[in-house]
Amino acid sequence: MRRPSFLLLFFFSSCCFASELKIQVLDPDQRNVSAARVAIYSGSTASVRSTSLDGLASFDDLPDGTYRVQVQAAGFCEANETVKVPSPGTSVVAIRLS
């Protein structure tokens, strides 16, 4: 009887308290940058995405915490920022490249 309760608790905590982080990558004139490489790091774990045509990279099902964000795009300097992701919900962070 205890095992189903544990599994239900695990399912509830993993599906309902996960966060989403959206990184909006912009050029110096505030225009979207597509095809930028966006990596987020938490400890030794990394996740990498490319920005869409609207300059967005999305990371789903993240535990709350602090992440290091690294953005690389052709013709721009690399950008690095630290982002705190609360749980649950969606955080949108704009990063302007130079």
Relevant terms:
three-stranded mixed sheet, four-stranded antiparallel sheet, globular, alpha+beta, 1 helix, disordered N terminus, about 15% helix, about 100 residues, about 50% strand
Q: What's the short story on this structure?
A:
The chain has 98 residues and is an alpha+beta fold. The protein is built from one helix and seven strands, in the order αβββββββ. The strands form two sheets. It has a four-stranded antiparallel sheet with strand order 3-2-5-6, with no helix packed on it. Strands 4-1-7 form a three-stranded mixed sheet, with no helix packed on it.
Written account of the structure:
By secondary structure, the chain is α+β, with helices and mostly antiparallel strands. It is 15% helix and 51% strand. It contains 1 helix and 7 strands; from the N terminus they run αβββββββ. The chain has one helix at residues 2-16; strands spanning 19-26, 37-42, 45-50, 56-62, 65-72, 79-85, 89-96. The strands form 2 sheets. Strands 3-2-5-6 form a 4-stranded antiparallel β-sheet, with no helix packed on it. A 3-stranded mixed β-sheet has the order 4-1-7, with no helix packed on it. A hairpin with a 6-residue loop joins strand 5 and strand 6. It starts with a helix and ends with a strand.
